[in-house]
Amino acid sequence: MFNIQAVSFRDPDAPAAFTRSLRETGFAVLKDHPIAPERIDEAYRDWGYFFASPSKESFTHKPSSPEGYYPFRSENAKGSPTKDLKEFFQVYPATALPGEVETTTRSLYEDLVDLGGTLLKWIEANTPEDVRTAFSEPLPEMLSGSAQSMLRILHYPSQEGQVFDAGATRAAAHEDINLITLLLAGSAPGLQARDREGNWHEVPCDPGMIAVNTGDMLELASGGHYPSTTHRVVNPPDAKAGPRFSMPMFIHPRPEVKLSRDRTANDYLTERLREIGLGS
């Protein structure tokens, strides 16, 4: 049975329940977490103004750097020939941000990195010893000193009156690259995860929740103990439905961290970025 657990951050049993859900489904959902819903709403509002403004083009990313604005249909999922129906902005610690989103976004970034470190401590403490001893270093230490974690602000425009290639979706089926992803509740439904039998399930992420999923780097480092579950964002059933915003925080280790005997985090990241059309 595919049962993504919704875990209260304040529950004394939260670390074990959270880690168990990641092990069984690749996903877990946090309730009662430290980031107030009003802050998330404010960020979506401010970034909505940005994506609606022609000035966004001045923040377009440079080929030599992953940070900044990516125009509509810049990215495709690994193995998918069709570009996703989205535009987005990638934020790292030193990224230049539009003034109207600067304060809110910096604050969210810092708090999400802190929360990601806490969740890695939970996972480390609840991982079987034989799996844990195979890590090149403890999971929280992989994050220490890293400037690679990335907050992505995603805008899926309204599809009313638009015509797209057959099979084009907001985000085609994919797995994440990093250790874990913290996904702040989206402004509209659409996130789905696939179980081992190939069936798709809605990921619960009501306002005030954070969906967390395992990335490929943690799957590799754990020898498959924590599965990196395939997920997607489907088109709205009604073409007249409005836009959708979401903000995933991708928690990355330092580039030199060994994920396996022969692969560092940087090796793996470089390979995957090429596969999704974002690498050189």
Please name the defining characteristics of this protein.
Jelly Rolls, 14 strands, eight-stranded mixed beta sheet, 7 helices, 21% strand, 280 residues, four-stranded antiparallel beta sheet, alpha+beta
3D structure, described in words:
By secondary structure, this protein is α+β, with helices and mostly antiparallel strands. It has one domain: B-lactam Antibiotic, Isopenicillin N Synthase, Chain (Jelly Rolls, Sandwich). It is built from seven helices and 14 strands. It has an eight-stranded mixed sheet with strand order 1-2-10-7-12-5-4-3. A four-stranded antiparallel sheet has the order 6-11-8-9, with no helix packed on it. Helix 1 (14-25) packs across helix 3 (102-125). The longest helix has 24 residues, at 102-125. The chain is globular and about 55 Å long.
What is shown here, in short?
The chain has 280 residues and is α+β, with helices and mostly antiparallel strands. The protein is built from 7 helices and 14 strands. The strands form 3 sheets. Strands 1-2-10-7-12-5-4-3 form an 8-stranded mixed sheet. It has a 4-stranded antiparallel sheet with strand order 6-11-8-9, with no helix packed on it.
